[in-house]
From TrEMBL:
This protein's record includes keyword Metal-binding: no
InterPro entries found in the cross-reference section: ABC_tran_2
Name of the molecule in the record: Uncharacterized protein
Transmembrane segments: 65-94, 120-139, 145-176, 188-205, 251-275, 327-348, 368-389, 410-436, 442-464, 484-507, 513-535
UniProtKB keywords: Membrane, Transmembrane, Transmembrane helix
Source organism per UniProt: Oceanobacillus picturae
Record Pfam families: ABC_tran_2
Length: 547
């Protein structure tokens, strides 16, 4: 294992070393933290209230362990979804993999080393969802010290099975995809396949849902101690063993469940290493080859025709995003997860109309405010704008010699992010028109408002990336990894507009959808003017020449 540990240290240093990095993000971190702390308190308060109410309902029935079981199931599902993206980026799309293949190491050792970075992200994600519920449940149930010991061990094991399951599936897929020996097309197909695969799982689960059968089974199992837990976790033993280890009334029962969980995770890890030894390098070797492209005379003439330079620059940005697998995954595919899942859930839920009814039940003012904040969160989570400068890498300074001034270049990058956001907004339009069927007045006001909010979000992300870009990267993943600039952007947007929306919500003299819409339009326009003024100010200071 000494070679494995050396590889892990090398890869983590390459990813997280701060050598040569500037410290100018300190102010941004402070601002983001100031906005994030109130949200954290609100999040913990909501979790505590919901958990206390649920515990009070289940505890008299002897089914309180169901809370922990559902928690572990939900966290495993989230970690599985995150694993597909992180594994694709780290195992296959990373350009540094070619440098490690000649090393005198076994494929499974290289695989374990490449897993270190994604596992850090998984532990961070698990901590966000698992730890608050874990400690609050322990406090509400007056849990014994053994609960906390078993819970910490369970947390350490938590990402292993989702990660290994996603890894094994993707290693089989990539081994098959790379037979075509077409680098770009293979990577794009693999990235889209992960989204399609997860969507199909969701669809199949919902197609096989029988509400009457569920209610009958629930009534039967609710009469038994921990009966609901066994029923809910029957298809996924890791969640059952983890729950029993933490909540079992018998010491030996909890201990045996913990041992069973450890053995199960160890077997999954060994299976992961064995499959990696057989398939990983074979899947990677085809990533370095690509088919030769040819151009006809007519196509060449069309490609070299005169077009406005700003339009050519936007087309160049679009081609880079859609032809670079990592950029396509991070900027386009990842941003589609939330709206696609929402469409599937609402489309296949017979009570989906209740959401439209819920919005109709609110006043026009409150419905518009809710839609505005939700839309801002979705478009603000797109990584296109926060990577606009960083995607250039070491070739950024070539932009200084183009017949475009820096302000025009940044406007083109903002426009590129805005156009990418149109894909997500288009899905939202389909959702509102054909599934939720919200009231037309609300829709016609929301649409131009969200288009303006998307421009503000794109401008803010570009400005933040302009302040502290990451140009010295050797792998496209480094543009997104170990950078929390996206989180800073979301926190700033939701912090500013969240406070303003809260004020508008509680102001009695602001009534009616039209007055609310007018105020929101004015606020968004002011925010856009401020961000563009800051960009112009930084350009006048020569920021584009010193980054």
């Amino acid at each position: 294992m000494s070679k494995t540990w050396k590889l892990i240290r090398i890869m983590l240093k390459m990813q997280y070393s701060r050598v040569g990095k500037k410290n100018s993000q300190t102010i941004l971190w402070i601002v983001a933290l100031l906005f994030l702390l109130p949200m954290a308190f609100v999040y913990i308060s909501i979790v505590r209230s919901a958990l206390t109410a649920l515990y009070n309902v289940l505890e008299p029935l002897g089914q309180e362990s169901l809370i922990v079981g559902i928690l572990l199931l939900a966290v495993h599902i989230v970690l599985l979804l995150v694993s597909f993206i992180t594994i694709l980026n780290a195992f296959y799309f990373a350009e540094d993999i070619d440098s490690f293949i000649p090393f005198p190491v076994q494929p499974y050792q290289l695989l374990l080393a490449k897993s270190a970075g994604p596992m850090i992200y998984l532990y961070g994600t698990a901590a966000l969802f698992f730890l608050p519920v874990f400690f609050i449940y322990g406090a509400v149930s007056a849990a014994h010290i053994l609960y906390y010991i078993a819970g910490i061990i369970t947390f350490v094991l938590l990402p292993i099975i989702p990660f290994t399951l996603a890894g094994i599936i993707l290693m089989f897929i990539m081994r098959f995809v790379n037979i075509a020996k077409n680098k770009d097309r293979s990577k794009v197909i693999a990235g889209i396949s992960s989204l399609v695969f997860i969507v199909l799982i969701n669809v199949l689960i919902r197609l096989n849902t029988d509400v009457d059968a569920i209610m009958q089974n629930a009534a039967m199992f609710i009469q038994e101690q921990d009966g609901l837990l066994r029923w809910i976790t029957a298809f996924y033993p890791p969640a059952y063993f983890g729950t029993m280890a933490m909540t079992a009334s018998s010491l030996w029962s909890g201990f045996l469940s913990l041992i069973a969980g450890v053995v199960l995770h160890a077997c999954a890890l060994l299976m992961f290493m064995w499959v990696g030894q057989l398939l990983y390098i074979k899947g990677v070797l085809g990533m370095g080859t690509a088919n030769k492209s040819t151009f006809s005379g007519a196509k060449l003439s069309r490609k070299t025709s005169v077009t406005p330079i700003w339009l050519s620059y936007i087309k160049k940005e679009m081609r880079i995003i859609f032809r670079t697998p990592t950029f396509l995954t991070q900027c386009v595919i990842t941003s589609l997860f939330a709206p696609i899942f929402l469409i599937i859930i609402l489309f296949m839920d017979s009570s989906s109309g209740n959401i439209g009814g819920f919005l109709d039940g609110l006043s026009g003012k409150h419905g518009l405010l809710i839609l505005f904040l939700g839309s801002l969160l979705i478009v603000g989570s797109n990584a296109t704008s926060i990577s606009g400068i960083s995607r250039e890498g070491k070739s950024w300074h070539a932009n200084l010699f183009l017949p475009l001034n820096p302000k025009q270049i940044l406007l083109c990058k903002i426009a590129t992010a805005w156009f990418i956001n149109l894909i997500v907004i288009g899905l939202a339009v389909i959702l509102f028109i054909f599934i939720i069927k919200i009231e037309w007045t609300l829709f016609l006001i929301w649409l131009p408002l969200v288009l303006l909010a998307s421009w503000f979000s794109s401008a803010l992300g570009t400005f933040l990336d302009f302040l502290q870009p990451k140009l010295n990267w050797t792998d496209e993943q480094e543009v997104f990894k170990s950078r929390l600039i996206g989180l800073i952007g979301i926190v700033v947007q939701l912090g500013i507009f969240g406070i303003l929306v809260l004020l508008i919500w509680n102001l009695d003299f602001v009534n009616g959808i039209y007055m609310t819409a007018a105020i929101l339009f004015v606020l968004v326009v002011i925010a856009i003017v401020v961000i563009h003024s800051l960009i112009h100010y930084k350009i006048k200071q020569g920021q584009h020449q010193t980054i």
